Amino acid sequence: MSEFDFDLFVIGAGSGGVRASRVSAAYGARVAVAEEYRVGGTCVIRGCVPKKLLVYGAHFAEDLHDARRFGWNVPECSFDWPRLRDSVLGEVDRLNGLYTETLDKNKVTIFHERAIIEGPNAVRLASGKVVTAGRILIATGAWPVLPDIEGAEHGITSNEVFHLDKLPRRILIAGGGYIANEFAGIFHEFGSQVTIVNRSDTILRGYDEQLRDRLLQISMGKGIIFRFNAPFERIEKLEDGSLRAHLKGPGDPIDCDQILFAMGRKPHIAGLGLENAGIELNDQGAIKVDEQNRTNVESVYAVGDVTDRIQLTPVAIREGQAFADTVFGNTPRTVDYSCVPSAVFSQPPIASVGLTEAEARNKLGTIKVYSSDFRAMKNVLAGRNERSLYKLVCHGETGQVVGIHMIGPDAPEILQAAAIAVKAGLTKADFDDTVALHPSMAEELVLMK
User: Is 27 helix (H, G, I), strand (E, B) or coil?
Assistant: First the structure.
């Protein structure tokens, strides 16, 4: 018999933790996982899944309007926020059940309570029980950042936004990243007056500059208001229950009914007991790990957003799989972080993989950029002036496609397949040699000159 209660104890049942638990158990390990909230983690419970369902709901606003140009006699429609909210939360409940069922089927012991690290091979549960394990995996994810200002408690984050009692007439969204721009599009389509307030003068840092500019142009054209270089000073709650945001710099305070903080996410390590095992953090407060996901403590590992790597659900899943394969499957493997595709489910969406034009110039020197700036066929008939933009960034000498960047309808769906070509090292000539699928938006990828 082992000297430990379990071979593996996982703290956090999100995407990375569930994958590591399930696969490790399938390899024959005795596995336990502790989750203080709900099985499924940020993505399933309060992140990309419910958010994408809201994005689908938001699309109907424009689709119903455009349908008249396509011959449909659509009556005037109104939006029922509680109905969509409850439908989305119902789907979250269903997925929570499925994730729990998956762990149960793989004979993973689930502790529905908080766990903190007691030492290199021990965790203490909220009930007071101490459990030992040969290895501990930390997969607690990340948590929204709140500004350190007076009145911050009057705002909400992406954790609470899915549970709003009613739709705000005026919403102020703080931040310029993907969460801010996604919810700006969602609430705008639902009929709210949306203002984005950003500390800097740049949205979607890290994405291709032309795509960022295009989204800003389209968003402003739709009526979304942007206020740049405007850090928060304080938030005041007025007698009628509304909020007043006082900002630094020129400009009047902004009155609104709801403030959503989307100012980034930080590793969720508060009160986790890392100091009890001497686990090291980096300057950003993330757990430091090596290629095998191991911390500086031999028996403790970490995967997902709690580390200092890419904060994306598919990356956390890959890391959880690699951990299980390496530690319990006798098939060592690491995760390749190059060419990871990403998307912003804004209105319209952005999708990207590989090097941006600026990154490619800095890294490769000589590059060639091909682009297509067009109106989707559907937008033409609908009378919308909204234009899509596709870009291929290529090595100047070899012609290898090192980056693809897109903004337009269904861009993420198209990019997933196109990302394979970038990962495989295909060239512009390979794209040119591929016959176009007509009529489609995706055909622009093989028609650029």
Answer: coil
250 band by pLDDT with thresholds 50, 70 and 90: confident
Q: What is the DSSP string of 203-246?
A: SSTTS-HHHHHHHHHHHHHHT-EEE-S--EEEEEE-TTS-EEEE
Band (pLDDT 50/70/90 cuts) for residue 254 is very high
In this prediction, residue 249 carries a pLDDT of 84
Q: How far apart are CA 133 and CA 126, in angstroms?
A: 17
Q: Is 336 a domain residue?
A: no
Nearest-angstrom CA–CA distance, 158 and 270? 19
Task: For residue 340, tell me if it sits in a domain.
Answer: no
- Cα separation, 27 vs 230, in Å, equals 53
Q: What is the structure's pLDDT at 1?
A: 53
- Domain hosting 161: range is 152-263
pLDDT at 160: 97
Q: Is residue 421 situated within a structural domain?
A: yes
Are 356 and 392 in the same domain?
yes
CA angle 309–47–140, rounded 5-degree value: 50
Q: What is the CATH number of the domain that holds 171?
A: 3.50.50.60
Are 192 and 115 contained in the same domain?
Answer: no
Residue 317: φ, ψ to 5°:
-65, -45
State the catalytic residues: 438
Q: Is pLDDT of 319 > 90?
A: yes
Judgement on whether residues 135 and 276 belong to the same structural domain of the protein: yes
In the predicted model, what is the mean pLDDT of residues 64-84?
95
**pLDDT attached to residue 308:** 87
* Angle 45-47-51 from CA coordinates, rounded to 5°: 105
> Residue 407 forms beta bridges with which residues?
350, 389
* Reported confidence tier of residue 271, pLDDT bands at 50, 70, 90: very high
Radius of gyration, alpha carbons of the chain:
24
- pTM, 2 dp: 0.95
